[in-house]
């Protein structure tokens, strides 16, 4: 009798479980499509734009232009709509693409501030919003992208500070913020040991560089800070950036003697120090000749 009772209970709950499972599966398949349709509705595009026809329920969402789906979960993992003559505000519905790993909306005409809904994209590894008309402060929630490796926001009109929360991006490899109106460099930037590329030129950064700035940047290969209002002396700790290949500090207000430690950077290929108030000369150890060579530069 007890076994019959158990089978009866299973018979009661099984249809409910199957219904719930199917509901979840259906939601998973259609969630991204609904989100992208809402995104398309927010774009400022002409009626003849290719996305108005291609992004429709007549096609599988995984076949839409610029959309890539993962084979495992069959969810949208990448969205590349760069250089497609799109405009308007950045759609907040993008935050519903919870499996998104890469988002590229560069070279368009998007404007306004970044919607906070983007903070829900916790799987992001690539975020490229460069060459648009975006403005406002860089939001603190950028630090919620713990998996992010490549952040590109260059050629926009962002203002204010680089938020200290950026230090939470412990896997960040490339940071490209050039051609904005940012004011201060958060020292937390120089604590991200995974960084290989830092491009912050053509902003309004002021103040001096911290003496310890290369202590945690052992992987740094490219550093560009040209065209700002940085002052003070160039830190001697640059000698600790042993992998540095390109260093650009021109068009600032640096003073004093060029630190001799720069001459010990054996991987250095490009050095820009022009349009500062520096003095002295640099001795670079030539790998070809194995001897100290005098390198003169017009500062």
TrEMBL record:
GO biological process, one term: defense response
Entry's transmembrane regions: none
GO CC, one annotated term: plasma membrane
Pfam families cross-referenced by the UniProt entry: LRR_1, LRR_8, LRRNT_2
UniProt key word Cell membrane: yes
Highest taxon, organism lineage: Eukaryota
All residue ranges annotated as the Leucine-rich repeat-containing N-terminal plant-type domain in the record: 31-69
Subcellular location: Cell membrane
Signal peptide span: 1-23
Name under which the protein is recorded: Leucine-rich repeat-containing N-terminal plant-type domain-containing protein
Native species: Cinchona calisaya
